[in-house]
Amino acid sequence: MAADSKHRPVYVISVAAELVDMHPQTLRLYERKGLIRPGRSSGKTRLYSERDIEHLREIRRLTQELGVNLAGVEEVMRLQHQLDDLQQEFEAEIERIEDELRVQAQPPALPPSGEKPDPRDRPVYVISIAAELVDMHPQTLRLYERKHLIRPGRSSGKTRLYSERDIEHLREIRRLTQELGVNLAGVEEIMRLRFELDASRTRLEGNVRRIQDDITERMTKWRTLPAPEMPGETPDDERGGEGDREP
């Protein structure tokens, strides 16, 4: 599978800085902070890809349009890099599976069918308990829900029910706002990426399982095909045994 051309490092730092209207020293600072990850030529020259350019433009949007501080930008870009890495891992896994199919190798063991959902996603806590667990006011939890920072479930009577994962998200929001000083706009970007990362991981893992299932089905069909008859052979039911011949 060919590598995504968007990840191919092609721009030297002066060109990349011009494309995003930044000073080259700013790009070096962002690299030291881990916000971007440019490649290197054989001579150790920084080379930026189209994906790096997209990341730099996103950093400018977060800082200049949304007023997100550098700590918030670091969180956003860390999640964005995780999404990029997940996509590349998925593409590598698909390539590995395709290689196995080409050589008719035994596919890896499949997870048992009918997997149970993650217990962390089971909605169990009413809003008063959830608020107590994360040391917040229930009204704050309602505000975060309206901002789509958390997504609690509902009981049959429409009562909000929070899962362990919701509690984790609320504690993460508190860390971002209280410890890192990230504004609400930055928190919204970070949590949106967290939801996207979780959904992408689930979707890509499901795609890999479906491909593995398809491979297993094909391999089973190949193994159960009847062996081809050799030239000149006569089927057993058309041959006469020694005892059937006339003397």
From TrEMBL:
Region (Disordered): 101-121, 220-247
Keywords on record: DNA-binding
Alphabetized GO MF terms: DNA binding; DNA-binding transcription factor activity
Domain named HTH merR-type: residues: 10-79, 124-193
InterPro entries, alphabetized: DNA-bd_dom_put_sf, MerR-type_HTH_dom, MerR_fam
Domain of life: Bacteria
Annotated Basic and acidic residues bias: 237-247
Transmembrane residue ranges: none
UniProt KW DNA-binding keyword: yes
Name under which the protein is recorded: Transcriptional regulator, MerR family
